[in-house]
Amino acid sequence: MSDDKYPPEPEPHGRTCQWCHGAGYVTRALAYSPGTDPFTGPAETVHRAAQCNHCRGSGTYDSDLDPTL
Fold this sequence. Notes:
By secondary structure, the protein is an all-beta fold. The protein contains no helices and 2 strands. It has a two-stranded antiparallel ribbon. The mean pLDDT is 79. This is Molecular chaperone DnaJ. InterPro entries: HSP_DnaJ_Cys-rich_dom_sf (IPR036410).
């Protein structure tokens, strides 16, 4: 017996994007270092969600539409 209350959602039509796992977005890390030299010293990091570059946010991968190739 399963503990899930909801049935699993069907896979998107086509091939699921392997980089975002069908979600359409990925996590991006942005760093900020105060001062004149941004490459030294401690940095403050923020993680934000961004559109997947490989599937363009659709969640299904098509190599013909991949802008990174």
